[in-house]
UniProtKB/TrEMBL annotation:
Residues 92-111 are annotated as: Disordered. Pfam families: LptC. GO terms for molecular function: glycolipid transfer activity; lipopolysaccharide transmembrane transporter activity. It comes from Hydrocarboniphaga daqingensis. This is LPS export ABC transporter protein LptC.
Length: 189
């Protein structure tokens, strides 16, 4: 039976079989690879309307925080929008910190608040105080607020500015790092 196949039929079938083979072996028929997202480009979790409390190893509250949105990445970094934090102070109202943006570097517990950052609290004598700075680090492990950027201070009886700040909320100390200028308004007796 196969001996009787006409030669013209072989020439007709050969290009047809080659076309079918090329069709199924071409890259166009292979499944498209799934793009792998870069850890910094795509968050693992995206949360909206977030509230959290961080406690230390003894269960003591280190801070409370809220953000309109929080994105967490595979490398354990985070990005925040409209970040607000309350940092406790012994025997006084907490420092209230707010900024339009914030971030936590990969594999760290510190949070960088990016400006303008506003800090509302009080002087040791209880007088209300507002500080502003373009950037502020919050380090809960060291109970430290710090920046190397310029800081503005405003309150009823004094105002000032400094280049850099370190404030230990556990020890209740504030250190202005340089170029400190303060103006005092004497209180009326």
């Amino acid at each position: 039976m196969f001996a009787r196949i006409k030669p013209w039929l072989i020439w007709l079938m050969l290009p047809l079989m080659a076309g079918v083979w090329l069709l199924f072996q071409s890259r166009g028929m292979q499944p498209e690879p799934v793009p792998v997202a870069d850890g910094a480009a795509a968050p693992r979790y995206s949360l909206r309307g977030v509230k959290w409390t961080r406690v230390d190893a003894t269960g003591q509250r280190e801070f409370t925080a809220e953000a309109d949105s929080a994105d967490y990445y595979d490398d354990e970094s985070a990005r925040y929008e409209q970040l607000r934090m309350n940092v406790p102070r012994a025997g006084q109202a907490p420092w209230r910190l707010s900024s339009p943006k914030g971030s936590a570097p990969a594999h760290e517990k510190r949070i960088s608040m990016e400006g303008p950052v506003e800090v509302v609290g009080s002087w040791p004598d209880g007088e209300a105080l507002t500080m502003t700075t373009p950037q502020l680090w919050v380090d809960p492990a060291r109970h430290l607020l710090s920046t190397e950027a310029g800081v503005q201070f405003d309150s009823a009886s004094r105002s000032g500015q400094a280049k850099g700040l370190k404030a230990d909320w556990e020890q209740q100390t504030v250190q202005l790092l340089g170029n400190v200028r303060m103006q005092y308004v004497p209180r009326k007796p």
